[in-house]
C-alpha cells in the first residue's frame, strides 16, 4: 500500500498497491468459495479468537510502522470514525473480545493491510478516493477477516514474506553505504550519495517486509467474510465491495503508468550523470542500483480477479436475500467535510505534488507547495516536514533544513526518514559522533522496533563499530521472527 530523500511516495505505490497484495496461487486448481461453499462463511466462524503466534505486541507493532515509510497521520477525527466503524463490524462477527485497531498512514496509494498484532493500517491515499461508507466497511471487514482467519501464519505468506525481506535487507544496505560515505570501498561522489538517498527511501525497508502477499484463496476468504458482514449490517455490495475493487483496478492502471514515468526519469538522470562523469560508480553502488531495479519490477495479480469472484459469491448467497441494504454516502461525506480532515487531505496532496516536483528537478516550485503543506493541522506531521526538509536540502538551504529537522524532532510524531537524512548529512560533513547520536536517539525514540534493527546493524558496521553490530545481530535474530534473516545480511 506503500514506502523516500525519497523518490516520492509514488514509488511506495508500486510496492503496496492495494495493501492486500494478491499473488498467483501456488496451485493451478484454485476454486472460489462461491463454487465450493454451501453456506455463507460467516455461519462457520470460530466462537473465540486465537491470537497470532507471530504477534510482537500491539504497541511495539505500531511503533514498528511509525518508524517505517512516512509514518502515521495524526488525524483524530477520522481515526475515531474508522475505529467506531470497526467496533460495529467486530460485533457482527459474534466473536467475543475480538481485537483490532485502525491507524491512518501517509501512504499515497490505495494501501490497506492488517498485521499479526490485529492492527489495521489504511493509507490516506485510499481514504481520500472513497465515496461511501459502504466502501470503507468493505475494506475494514476484509482486513479484519485476515486477522480472524490467521492468514499471517500460513506457509505461503511466510515464504513470500521472506522474498520481500530480501528487499528490506537491500534497503538497509543502501542506508549503510550512505552513512559510510563509501568508506568501505571508494569515497562516493555527491551524485552517488544523491542516488543512494533516493534508493534508500524508495525501498522504504519494512513497508515491504511488513505487508503480506496473500494467496488468491486467502483473498477469496477475506472478501467473502467481508461481504457477509457488510450485508448483515445493511451495506450495499455494488457501492461497497464491488466499487472498492473497481477503484483498485483503476488505480493499478494509473500506478503502472506513473511508475513507468518515474522510472524513466530517474534512469535517464542516472545514465546522464554517469556518462558526463558526474557519477562515481563504485562496486557497491552498482550492485545496489541493479538489484533495486529488479526488485521494483515485480507484479501482482490485478484487482479485477477479485471482482469476478466476489460477484459470484454475492450472487449465490445474497441476490435473492430479503436482507435490506442501502448506500451510506451521507455518513462518509460528513466525516470528509470535517474541517481538520479536509485540510489534512489537501495538505498531503500538496506535499505529494511537491515531492514529485523535487524529483523532476523543479525545486523552487516544490518548495512553494511544501511550505503550504506545513500549515495547521499538518504543521508537525512527519510526512509534510520530511518533504519540506528534503526540498530545502535540494536547494542547499542548510539553515532551513536544520530548522525543519528540529521542528520534526520536537513534534509528537517525528519522522524516521528525516532522522536518517540528518544523520547522513552529519556523516558527510565528517561529524560521525553526531550522526551516531542522531541514529541512536531516533532508534530509542521508536522503542527499538524490529524494522530498524537491520538498518542500525548496517550503520554500525560501516562506522567501524563491529562489536555493537555483532551484539545487535544476535539480539535481532532472537527478537524478530520474520526479519531474522536480515540481521546477518545487512552488515555485509
Features of the shown structure:
492 residues; mainly alpha; Serine Threonine Protein Phosphatase 5, Tetratricopeptide repeat; 23 helices; 3 strands; 63% helix; disordered N terminus
Quick rundown:
With 492 residues, this protein is mostly helical. Helix content is 63%, strand content 3%.
Contiguous low-pLDDT stretches (5 residues minimum) are 1-19, 21-28, 155-173, 181-188, 199-212, 281-285, 291-301
The dominant shape is: globular
User: Separation of termini?
Assistant: 29 Å
The largest sheet is:
3 strands, mixed
Oligomer: single chain
Q: What is the gyration radius calculated from CA atoms? A: 22 Å
Number of strands: 3
Structural class: mainly alpha
The arrangement of helices and strands along the chain is HHHHEEEHHHHHHHHHHHHHHHHHHH
The proportion of residues in beta strands is: under 5%
Amino acid at each position: 500500500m506503500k514506502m523516500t530523500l525519497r523518490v516520492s511516495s509514488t514509488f511506495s505505490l508500486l510496492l503496496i498497491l492495494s495493501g492486500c497484495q494478491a499473488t498467483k496461487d501456488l496451485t493451478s486448481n484454485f476454486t472460489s468459495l462461491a463454487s465450493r461453499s454451501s453456506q455463507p462463511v460467516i455461519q462457520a466462524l470460530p466462537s473465540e479468537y486465537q491470537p497470532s503466534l507471530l504477534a510482537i505486541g500491539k504497541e511495539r507493532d505500531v511503533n514498528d510502522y511509525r518508524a517505517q515509510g512516512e509514518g502515521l497521520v495524526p488525524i483524530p477525527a477520522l481515526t475515531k470514525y474508522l475505529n467506531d466503524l470497526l467496533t460495529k463490524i467486530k460485533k457482527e462477527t459474534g466473536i467475543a473480545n475480538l481485537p483490532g485497531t485502525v491507524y491512518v498512514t501517509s501512504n499515497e496509494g490505495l494501501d490497506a493491510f492488517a498485521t499479526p498484532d490485529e492492527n489495521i493500517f489504511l493509507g490516506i491515499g485510499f481514504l481520500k478516493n472513497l465515496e461511501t461508507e459502504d466502501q470503507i466497511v468493505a475494506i475494514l471487514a476484509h482486513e479484519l477477516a485476515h486477522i480472524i482467519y490467521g492468514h499471517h501464519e500460513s506457509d505461503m505468506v511466510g515464504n513470500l514474506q521472506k522474498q520481500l525481506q530480501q528487499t528490506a535487507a537491500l534497503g538497509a544496505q543502501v542506508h549503510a553505504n550512505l552513512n559510510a560515505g563509501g568508506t568501505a570501498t571508494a569515497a562516493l561522489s555527491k551524485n552517488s550519495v544523491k542516488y543512494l538517498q533516493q534508493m534508500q527511501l524508495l525501498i522504504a525497508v519494512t513497508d515491504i517486509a511488513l505487508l503480506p502477499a496473500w494467496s488468491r484463496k486467502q483473498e477469496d476468504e477475506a472478501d467473502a467474510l467481508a461481504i457477509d458482514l457488510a450485508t448483515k449490517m445493511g451495506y450495499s455490495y455494488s457501492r461497497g465491495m464491488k466499487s472498492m475493487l473497481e477503484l483498485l483496478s483503476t488505480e493499478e492502471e494509473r500506478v503502472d503508468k506513473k511508475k513507468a514515468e518515474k522510472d524513466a526519469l530517474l534512469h535517464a538522470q542516472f545514465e546522464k550523470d554517469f556518462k558526463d562523469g558526474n557519477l562515481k560508480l563504485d562496486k557497491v553502488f552498482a550492485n545496489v542500483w541493479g538489484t533495486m531495479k529488479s526488485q521494483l519490477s515485480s507484479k501482482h495479480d490485478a484487482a479485477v480477479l477479485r471482482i469476478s469472484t466476489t460477484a459470484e459469491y454475492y450472487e449465490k448467497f445474497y441476490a435473492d436475500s430479503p436482507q435490506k441494504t442501502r448506500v451510506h454516502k451521507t455518513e462518509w461525506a460528513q466525516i470528509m467535510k470535517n474541517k481538520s480532515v479536509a485540510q489534512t487531505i489537501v495538505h498531503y496532496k500538496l506535499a505529494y505534488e511537491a515531492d514529485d516536483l523535487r524529483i523532476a528537478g523543479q525545486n523552487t516550485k516544490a518548495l512553494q507547495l511544501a511550505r503550504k503543506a506545513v500549515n495547521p493541522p499538518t504543521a508537525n506531521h512527519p510526512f509534510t516536514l520530511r518533504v519540506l526538509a528534503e526540498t530545502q536540502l535540494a536547494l542547499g538551504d542548510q539553515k532551513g533544513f536544520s530548522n525543519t529537522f528540529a521542528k520534526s524532532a520536537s513534534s509528537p510524531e517525528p519522522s524516521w526518514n528525516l532522522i536518517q537524512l540528518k544523520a547522513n548529512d552529519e556523516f558527510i560533513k565528517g561529524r560521525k559522533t553526531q550522526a551516531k547520536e542522531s541514529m541512536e536517539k531516533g532508534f530509542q525514540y521508536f522503542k527499538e522496533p524490529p524494522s530498524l534493527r537491520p538498518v542500525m546493524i548496517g550503520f554500525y558496521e560501516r562506522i567501524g563499530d563491529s562489536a555493537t553490530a555483532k551484539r545487535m545481530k544476535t539480539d535481532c535474530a532472537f527478537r524478530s521472527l520474520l526479519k531474522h534473516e536480515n540481521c546477518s545480511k545487512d552488515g555485509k
